TrEMBL record, chain A:
NCBIfam families: glgD (TIGR02092). Signal peptide: none annotated. Belongs to the bacterial/plant glucose-1-phosphate adenylyltransferase family. The keyword Iron-sulfur does not apply. The keyword Transferase applies. GO terms for molecular function: glucose-1-phosphate adenylyltransferase activity. The gene is glgD. Residues 280-359 form the Glucose-1-phosphate adenylyltransferase/Bifunctional protein GlmU-like C-terminal hexapeptide domain. This is Glucose-1-phosphate adenylyltransferase subunit GlgD. InterPro entries: ADP-Glc_PPase, GlgDAde_trans, GlmU/GlgC-like_hexapep, NTP_transferase_dom, Nucleotide-diphossugar_trans, Trimer_LpxA-like_sf. It comes from Anaeromicrobium sediminis. Residues 19-207 form the Nucleotidyl transferase domain.
Automatic annotation (TrEMBL), chain B:
Residues 291-366 form the Glucose-1-phosphate adenylyltransferase/Bifunctional protein GlmU-like C-terminal hexapeptide domain. The record marks Q62, W101 as: Could play a key role in the communication between the regulatory and the substrate sites. The keyword ATP-binding applies. The lineage of its organism: Bacteria, Bacillati, Bacillota, Clostridia, Peptostreptococcales. Belongs to the bacterial/plant glucose-1-phosphate adenylyltransferase family. This is Glucose-1-phosphate adenylyltransferase. Involved in the biosynthesis of ADP-glucose, a building block required for the elongation reactions to produce glycogen. Catalyzes the reaction between ATP and alpha-D-glucose 1-phosphate (G1P) to produce pyrophosphate and ADP-Glc.
Length: 372, 379
């Protein structure tokens, strides 16, 4: 896949997930006990042999830089190409008017222009899946399309994708219009916001849109060109989740407790890689009782844990009970405390004899570093 | 070739077979044997080097080195991939006068004098790659300098009844060694050598050259070099260590050392963030315990899946325990699979071994530890 470069665009709407994105972009929300959201798209790209990948950030990049480093965990510490983190170029006027992602791409036009690859794959981080982009690129080349949009056909009882873009596709696979999933039809072709096209076309779109001033966002620009360009859909058939709300984050985490889902998501078409932390194996004592849970390394579990995702280095003391919850890195839950339907961010400390419970539909979120 | 000068060069002896570990070291050197759920034995020494700021480390390999070499790689897991120094793997080699195997511990260092010289060190730290312990070598170096010693030997108090197995140091009130006894029948002290030495490099070099000329010498630090230094009146001191230290020489002691990690008062703290033990990290998910799973008093590494019962055991990366299976007081190596209804007690199940559904292996009340690998697996 020497002819494909990857661009991950982190301008993601964080309104519904703001409780866990105060200090970090959606891309670095911890998930599955030891991963971050961005690990999926990064690993999918790397597993397809892409080795020129850039991440367009929207600020809040401390957590991203800490996680990504030189890109070594994804084998992206390369002499040629590798990983590029491109931050927005801010000037005083831009601070007031937000100019959209096209402006951001334009500011880093040289990077795109001087990359050696012929094709570009654009994606965001919040749609998580295990996809084979090699196949998608082949489909794109064979179909002769100008742009290929990756989508998944979904039965509408899946409330998690409400409000996402949905593609109307004709019998030849061509995208004829793009609307929104309003939840009132039986099927939706949910756009995974992953676009494949020639780099030249991408550069044209950026230049044209900004010259004409008709669109500020790439998505918008593509939608406006459906008549003039041949835009096709590539169907993805595996597990797909979208991490754009607390509710979705919680439900997706509970999905990961299903061993078939997690095997597919983390391994099926290639492994998902992440930054490693050199934690020792997890330790269980005589009093521990754990069922249907994922537990990361470095944990010391003395209490009762049911239906949970337990992040790295968490301590659950004797006499504590944790159910249906997500406990992120290095949190501590002391003796006699009871936690249910909760999301504990990193470094949360629950002292003795506390009772904290949310609701399945509305899980309780405890912010990073809080001591209760 | 002259490299950036280093005050001290650490040399790790990692060529040993560990023949008393029998089938466990059929295909790998003892330092490469898996330990503690995610580590290999040599990780302790290499992590100690890294945590003690030893910037130049040589690892001397000889017996079955492939897995050990692959494990060490460029040293990056221990932060030993450095521009100046870092880790170098040193197998026996062919020079202008021909090639030869390392004859003994001292000869292995003798053969690599050029490597050590290239760092122009003042001191050399000799280590063994097959012991499990945590130790700050920089403190020992400080002590060596304070004492103005020419050689310092790290010692640990062992039970008197075991003194016959060790090199025993007899010291004066200032910890200066006046006599060294290798495996004495009637020991006068219970201070056993841990195989950790610091030497003034200039002094050691002279002794190595001289020792090499002696055809009757076994070219061994414990048997030849140290006794000779003591006898010639050099300033040789002991450095007392009182933490956890284990030479996992036999299958029983290997099993025991793994079980030691499960004790509430385990003296070997793997969870101390200031002194992490580093290893090559697997790329796999956290482990999963299903609704039917039951885990007590155990260590589980990433990638394990447990549907059955696990008690008093250590499970390595990707170990699998099926429905209604029981794993008691056992060590399950990476990728091993215990199928449904199988019962495993006081057994070491080696890498990638599959224990068939319904089999029963081992007995938790037995004095013996079973070892099952792919070759002897009749279950």
């Amino acid at each position: 896949m020497k002819d494909l470069m990857g661009i991950i665009n982190l301008s993601e709407n964080e309104e519904e997930i703001k409780e866990i994105t105060y200090n970090r972009p959606t891309a670095t929300v911890p998930i599955g006990g030891r991963y971050r959201v961005i690990d999926f798209i990064l690993s999918n790209m790397v597993n397809a042999g892409i080795h020129n990948i850039s991440i367009f950030t929207q600020g809040k990049s401390r957590s991203l830089m800490d996680h990504i480093g030189t890109g070594k965990p994804w084998d992206l510490d390369r002499k040629n190409d590798g990983l590029f983190v491109l931050n927005p170029v801010v000037n005083v006027n831009d601070v007031i008017t937000h100019k959209g992602d096209l402006e951001n791409f334009k500011n880093h036009l040289d990077y795109i222009k001087y990359s050696n690859q012929e094709y570009v794959l654009l994606s965001r981080s919040y749609m998580i899946c295990n996809i084979d982009f090699k196949e998608a690129l082949q489909y794109h080349k064979e179909s002769g399309s100008d742009i290929t949009i990756v989508y998944k056909k979904m039965i509408n009882n899946n409330k998690r994708f409400l409000g996402r873009n949905s593609l109307n596709i004709d019998e030849n696979g061509r995208v004829i219009s793009i609307g929104r999933n309003a939840g009132n039809r039986r099927y939706y072709n949910i756009s995974m916001e992953m676009y494949l096209m020639k780099k030249e076309l991408f550069l044209d779109i950026i230049q044209d849109s900004l010259t004409l001033g008709d669109s500020q966002y790439l998505k918008q620009a593509i939608f406006q060109r459906l008549d003039t360009l041949n835009v096709n859909g590539y169907p993805y058939e595996g597990y797909l989740a979208c991490i754009n709300s607390i509710q979705n984050y919680y439900e997706t985490s509970m999905d990961i407790l299903d061993i078939d889902v997690s095997r597919e998501l983390f391994h099926k078409r290639g492994s998902i890689y992440t930054k490693t932390k050199d934690e020792p194996p997890a330790k269980y004592t005589d009093d521990s009782k754990v069922s249907n849970s994922v537990v990361a390394n470095g944990c010391i579990i003395e209490g009762i844990v049911e239906n949970c995702i337990i992040g790295r280095g968490v301590k659950i003391k004797k006499g504590a009970v944790v159910k249906d919850s997500i406990i992120m890195q290095k949190s501590i839950i002391e003796d006699g405390s009871y936690i249910k339907n909760a999301i504990l961010d990193k470094y949360v400390h629950i002292t003795e004899n506390n009772m904290l419970a949310g609701d399945r539909k509305n899980p309780l979120v405890i912010k990073k570093g809080i001591k209760i | 070739m002259l490299r950036q000068k280093k005050e001290v060069v650490a040399m790790v002896l990692a060529g040993g077979q560990g023949s008393r570990l029998k089938e466990m070291t059929e295909n790998i050197a003892k330092p490469a044997v898996a330990f503690g759920g995610k580590y290999r034995i040599i990780d302790f020494t290499l992590s100690n080097c890294s945590n003690s700021d030893m910037e130049a480390v040589g690892v001397l390999t000889q017996y079955q080195p492939f897995e050990l070499n692959a494990h060490i790689g460029n040293g990056s897991p221990w932060d030993l991939d450095r521009i100046h120094g870092g880790v170098s793997v040193l197998p026996p080699y062919v020079g202008r006068d021909g090639g030869r195997w390392y004859k003994g511990t001292a000869n292995a260092i003798y053969e690599n004098m050029d490597f050590i010289d290239s760092y122009e060190p003042d001191y050399v730290l000799i280590l063994s790659g097959d012991h499990i312990y945590k130790m700050d070598y920089s403190m020992m170096l400080e002590y060596h300098k304070e004492k103005g010693a020419e050689a310092t030997i790290s010692v640990i108090k062992v039970p008197w009844e075991e003194t016959y197995r060790f090199g025993i140091m007899n010291v004066d009130e200032d910890n200066r060694i006046y006599e060294f006894e290798e495996k004495p029948k009637n020991a006068k002290s219970n201070l056993a050598s841990m195989g950790i030495y610091i030497f003034d490099w200039k002094v050691l070099k002279e002794y190595l050259v001289e020792d090499e000329k002696d055809e009757n010498s076994k070219n061994d630090f414990g048997k030849n070099i140290i006794p000779k230094m003591v006898d010639s009146g050099l300033k040789v001191y002991t450095y007392n260590f009182d933490g956890y230290w284990k030479d996992v020489g036999t299958i029983e002691s290997f099993w025991e050392a793994n079980m030691d990690l499960l004790k509430d008062d385990s003296k070997l703290d793997l969870y101390d963030r200031k002194w992490k033990i580093y290893s090559v990290n697997p790329h796999t998910q956290p482990h999963y315990i299903s609704s039917s799973g039951e885990v007590k008093n155990s260590l589980l590494n990433e990638g394990c899946i447990v549907h059955g019962k696990v008690e008093g055991s250590v499970l390595f990366t990707g170990a699998y325990v099926g429905e209604n299976a029981k794993v008691i007081d056992s060590v399950i190596m990476p990728g091993a699979k215990i199928e449904d209804y199988a019962i495993i007690e006081k057994t070491i199940v080696m890498e990638d071994t599959v224990i068939k559904a319904g089999s029963k292996i081992g007995d938790k009340d037995s004095a013996e530890v079973e070892v099952i690998n792919k070759n002897n697996n009749s279950h």
